[in-house]
Amino acid sequence: SPLQANHVPLVLSLLGAATALALTLTDIAVPVGISGALLGAAVIYIFPALIDGAARRPRPRRVWATRQGLLLLPLGGFLGLLGTYVTLR
């Protein structure tokens, strides 16, 4: 299947990227801060809004088209970007 055919190149490229970062970075605080900002916003704001939309619309075309989704998704995106900006500043 196409998903299985892409699995090995994807895993190898992610492993190669992680190895390249480990070899070049001397301070781990920046990647940890960026991943914390983005994943924190995703777990707290974005994923719950998408799960709520999927639960309300069994065959979703637009799972974000709920009141909660329209409020939380932009807020989560903004806070994720703001956390990334503060980390890089």
Write up what this structure looks like:
The protein has 89 residues and is mainly α. The protein has helices at 2-24, 29-56, 67-88.
Query: Can you summarize the main beta sheet?
Result: none
**C-alpha geometry:** flat
Label the structural class. mainly alpha
Radius of gyration: 17 Å
Estimated helix fraction? over 70%
Query: Runs with pLDDT <50, length 5+?
Result: none
Strand content: under 5%
Average pLDDT reading: 87
Sequence of secondary-structure elements: HHH
| Total of helices | 3
Please report the distance between the alpha carbons of the first and last residues.
Answer: 44 Å
Q: What's the number of extended β-strand segments?
A: 0
Task: Pick out its properties.
single chain, about 90 residues, mainly alpha, about 80% helix, flat
Brief summary:
The protein has helices spanning 2-24, 29-56, 67-88. The chain is an all-alpha fold.
Q: What is the element layout, followed by pairings?
A:
Elements: H1 2-24, H2 29-56, H3 67-88
